[in-house]
Amino acid sequence: MVDSNQIPPRGPGRPPIRSEDETRALIIAAAARAFLETGYVRTGIDTIARDAGVSTRTLYRLFSAKEDLLKEAMEARIGAAFGSLDAARAAEADPRASLEALLSSYAGLALSDEAVRLTRLIAAERQEVPALADSYRQATARITGAFEAWVREHQQSGFLRAGNVETTAHLLRGTINEAQRQILLGLRGPLTEAEQRDWVKASADMILNGLAAG
Length: 214
Fold this sequence. Notes:
- Helices cover 72% and strands 0% of the residues.
- It has 2 domains: 20-65, Homeodomain-like (Arc Repressor Mutant, subunit A); 81-209, Tetracycline Repressor, domain 2, CATH 1.10.357.10.
- The longest helix is centred in the last third of the chain and has 27 residues, at 130-156.
- The chain is built from 9 helices and no strands.
- By secondary structure, the protein is an all-alpha fold.
- The termini are far apart.
- Keywords: DNA-binding.
- Residues 44-63 bind DNA.
């Protein structure tokens, strides 16, 4: 153990020492905010560095290109979402309760203001920046994995009729994605909590009526 008396005190105004992981997290968070507010193409590295409170030299030491920041920002968001989806799925033993928990968790992600803005960004810039769509597609594949796990589990138990797991998982996600599509097109405003609960219940009813065995 290091004797604190041997550590020289910081001078006045000297910033606290951050770990490399903390610095990376600050930069990724700043990049995510900037991409959503300004767009990927118009966001400069100097802006991200300034918002993160680091020098551009530090940023380039940790990330070699803006595209790396995009991938990291996407992965951080989707990684956290995947954890919550997987936990929601596993928390309930009853198939209906488990499905509603999974759909509700996904709705909280996909219908959030951040997710809607991100989808708009991808739609607007995907042709100019193919990496944007590629990163999104790779990241959301993990979310589909949570739905595939639910389908596989309940097909094996005999609760669901046998079928293509991947296709069924995409259909499950699609019930929530339809609400997002309507928001994106201006066909409706953001769902209230009550509307979101009703949407989830209706989605679960439709899915189970069509896929439940017997």
